[in-house]
Amino acid sequence: xxxxxxxxxxxxxxxxxxxxxxxxxxxxxxxxxxxxxxxxxxxxxxxxxxxxxxxxxxxxxxxxxxxxxxxxxxxxxxxxxxxxxxxxxxxxxxxxxxxxxxxxxxxxxxxxxxxxxxxxxxxxxxxxxxxxxxxxxxxxxxxxxxxxxxxxxxxxxxxxxxxxxxxxxxxxxxxxxxxxxxxxxxxxxxxxxxxxxxxxxxxxxxxxxxxxxxxxxxxxxxxxxxxxxxxxxxxxxxxxxxxxxxxxxxxxxxxxxxxxxxxxxxxxxxxxxxxxxxxxxxxxxxxxxxxxxxxxxxxxxxxxxxxxxxxxxxxxxxxxxxxxxxxxxxxxxxxxxxxxxxxxxxxxxxxxxxxxxxxxxxxxxxxxxxxxxxxxxxxxxxxxxxxxxxxxxxxxxxxxxxxxxxxxxxxxxxxxxxxxxxxxxxxxxxxxxxxxxxxxxxxxxxxxxxxxxxxxxxxxxxxxxxxxxxxxxxxxxxxxxxxxxxxxxxxxxxxxxxxxxxxxxxxxxxxxxxxxxxxxxxxxxxxxxxxxxxxxxxxxxxxxxxxxxxxxxxxxxxxxxxxxxxxxxxxxxxxxxxxxxxxxxxxxxxxxxxxxxxxxxxxxxxxxxxxxxxxxxxxxxxxxxxxxxxxxxxxxxxxxxxxxxxxxxxxxxxxxxxxxxxxxxxxxxxxxxxxxxxxxxxxxxxxxxxxxxxxxxxxxxxxxxxxxxxxxxxxxxxxxxxxxxxxxxxxxxxxxxxxxxxxxxxxxxxxxxxxxxxxxxxxxxxxxxxxxxxxxxxxxxxxxxxxxxxxxxxxxxxx
Length: 799
Hints:
- The protein is of the alpha/beta class.
- It contains 26 helices and 22 strands.
- Strands 11-10-12-13-15-14-20 form a 7-stranded mixed β-sheet, sandwiched between helices. Strands 2-1-3-4-8-7 form a 6-stranded parallel β-sheet, sandwiched between helices. A 5-stranded mixed β-sheet has the order 17-19-18-21-22, sandwiched between helices.
């Protein structure tokens, strides 16, 4: 085949980029092994397939990939070689390292979807990458949602008619591009995603880089038939049945790669059919990472094969055979590329080093001044020497030296010491921004800025089942926010198992109120991906116990998106579930300690009734943070008054509610257990105990204004009640009030926790009674505290 001059130039440009990426991998490994970086993982061996994929990746498209995709990111101009090295060095500066501000290890990419104020950029004018994460196959479920967003935008009857949503999609023509290593297709979430994509018919292209190994474990232990495309044949679409399109291509065949990815993009973009591209005969020249060498587990024959079938070597030979370039011309390109990589690496290193050098010089001068006024000059001079000793500069050496200098001079009072203290305070603030910021929204859109709007009732309010309050509220929200949609098991036609969405599918259509398969991990992923593209999804997980199926995605992905992109992206997904008291081991769970300690970055709402739940939904949809809503399972049939301002009233996050005022003891609880505590109050009053009951309403955030400690200051006694296991959420609440809020100083009695037993709740009403706090348990726990304080007035019950 003959090539035009323009085609030849494009091919040579592609080869140069591939060679630059390879050189960056080689030099990156060297920089890591010589101590300049902590860890290195690279995309060598996958250069040509990624360049081919990048050819058909358009503005508005999204990638959900993993840590081997550096060449692709270079090809779409979303990472430079200098930025690649800045991330390798963990340069904590978002201007130098825009993907994570130094928070993620190298080759974890993320484009910046947000302006500095947290508002959305026009994503249709960008080539977008969702924030990478390390857990194998963790990118899969999110990929499904990124693709589904295109389906929603294409088929929604009015959304793209509104200017504010035109920044998210151009007619739903965007493709979601996924990448994964062949060994990671063994993960369950891969299969769950591929199955769901085939069912839903969404525009995604999934590339599997098949290099034959999962670190040291060969393909024969990973995949049935040793081929992911073979084992997926049953998913192949036909003329009669929908499914996915499966394409195969070798990683070293440049012309075939171009044809394959052109076809894949056309099918996904035009037909909205998912495509899997099995890229075979991929090599890995440096092995898995800098933590080991592949010579330990690959045979000499395999290593020789990898050299021969390296995509760069094969492309090089092909260019010479096709008279695209001579050996000399290619060598010149390679030499130029190698030099450009060295210059970019040097620039990244110098930029990283210069910031720290400036800090070190400032601190050195301050400690030298301190030494001149101190009684311990030699010790301080040694600290300076220790700070300067490391070959690789780190901020921790500087801050550590300052803290030790202030410790040494703690008995001294000099102006130089005050200046050093001031530097440390300024440094703390700067480092807090570098390493602690953007866990939650920090802009005007934060849901924490939404003030309370109480429900309004008529003089004779209608008493309805709690589910009706929720249903009517959802109705108003779907009308008010056309970008809102809800999906999950039994969510659509049935209107959820408790009919909180009754008739919503009939009114708003299957696109916005839809059923899914039993696949919690990808239900969550649908929500994450759509939220990343400007929609406001509500992902329903049928019961709180089932949250474990998607907890990895909640913890590793959703909770960290804003943080790991250093404020560059957001996913304001609401995960809706219901929990606490029902029946049986797998329908009564309340693992709140696990949840709140695993998903910091997500608000956790624990309403005690469905009016509060509705108010929290109203609050969350005005903000831009993700949240987990745990509706109380036993509230759907309990009667509540129907507010007049449905869809408008709000419950502020992190602001507890005093359910009943009292003077003798403070009881702190939430959810269904709070209602049981309320039922106990009359019994306590009968024996002369005035209890103040506080409903925390949200666990994350928790009591932002320290209202609970104000109650404790009045009562001097406190009991935390919940149905988690001992040491779970009750311990979290106690830590917040007694330690963080300084409640210790107001205690006249030992603070107490009343929780469920360590085991899961047994089945039936008796099982519930003997497994979780009941009315008698709560009464006796309160009474025991009062009896200890005043046994004459409150004689012990059982002594």
